[in-house]
Every structure is written in C-alpha cells, then in structure tokens.
Amino acid sequence: METETATRWLTDAEQCAWRTHLDVSRLLMHQLEKDLQPFGLTNNDYEILVNLSESAEHRMRMSDLATATLQSKSRLSHQITRMEAAGLVRRVNCESDRRGLYAVLTDEGMETMRKVAPHHVASVRAHFIDLLPPEALAALHASLTPVAEHLRGQRGKA
Q1: Which of 3, 38, 48, 125 has the fewest CB atoms within 10 Å, i.e. the most exposed one?
Q2: Alpha helices in the chain (DSSP H)
Q3: Contacts for 50-59 with beta carbons within 8 Å, 24 or more apart?
C-alpha cells in the first residue's frame, strides 16, 4: 500500500469511470435480482444453479462451489440449506473424503434452470448486452479481462 503522501488520487476521468462502473454494477445486479424474483430465486441461487448445471454429473464439491461463487463455506451452507428446502439441490457425501460434501442439482433444479434461463438471458440482453454495440462489448471485454485476471490472482492471498 502506498503512504498517504504518495497517494495517486484519481483524475476526474478516472473517478468518472470508477463511479460509473460501481453504479452500473449495483444497478444491473439489482435489476437482474428483481427479474429473478417471480421465480422465487436470488442472484446467488441462480449462480449456484448455473454452476451445478454446467458441472460434470451436475455436482460440485461444496468447497469448490464456495470458491466459484465467492461465498464463504458457512454462507454457502446456509444458501444450500434454503435451496434444499425448495427441492433444487441436495447434499451428498463424498465417498473418497468422508468430510467432503457435494452439492447436486436435483431434477427439479434442472427443470427450474430450463424454465428460468431464457428469462434471465432476456433480462441480461435487455439491461446490458443490447444497450451496447458489438464493438463496445468487445472493447469492454478486452478492457476488463486484465482486471479479472489480476483479481483472480489475488484470491487466496493474505
């Protein structure tokens, strides 16, 4: 960390870009969450369903799912408990590691994904993708990739 005397304050243009990013991130996630509410899902629920639906055998170790969704193991455990009660997932013991657990997508969970995914994609399109021309999307991807790679590299560091 830099000392206060060496602080590189944001320029007006940098401050504008940063604040716009924060504003868009919060507003977009709020809107996507709102659009999932009629299905009884949260953004966290949907992210878990996506991860499980795209995994081999529709299952993931709980620890890997926590990492993939940026949740603490405790928070994920509570989330999975709620999703189990809704019939979307179930926990299964890991045969090779008695302490390990898998989260497994149920048939009902997969059916929920099939039903909700088209609506979620339409929401992402309406509130993000279709508002930007293809060249802006490509530039956004190119601009944010180094940030994502840097932050992935920071995970797990003290």
Answers
A1: 3
A2: 12-36, 43-53, 62-68, 73-85, 107-127, 134-154
A3: 50/113, 52/89, 52/103, 52/104, 52/105, 52/109, 53/105, 53/109, 53/110, 53/113, 57/104, 58/104, 58/105, 58/109, 58/110, 59/92, 59/102, 59/103, 59/104, 59/105
Rounded CA separation 93/97 (Å): 8
| Residue 121 CA neighbour count, 13 Å, CB half | 7
Six-digit token string for 61:
């170790």
The residues, any chain, with a CB within 8 Å of residue 33's CB and separated by 6 or more, are 42, 43
Rounded Cα distance, 62 and 109, in Å: 17
Q: Taking the model in full, what pTM does it have? A: 0.88
| Cα(8)–Cα(2) distance, integer angstroms | 9
Angle between helix 43-53 and helix 107-127 axes, rounded to 10 deg = 120
Whether 87 and 73 have beta carbons less than 8 Å apart is answered as no
- In three-state secondary structure terms, 124 is helix
Residue appearing with tokens 């993708």: 129
- pLDDT for the residue numbered 1: 54
For the chain, the average pLDDT equals 94
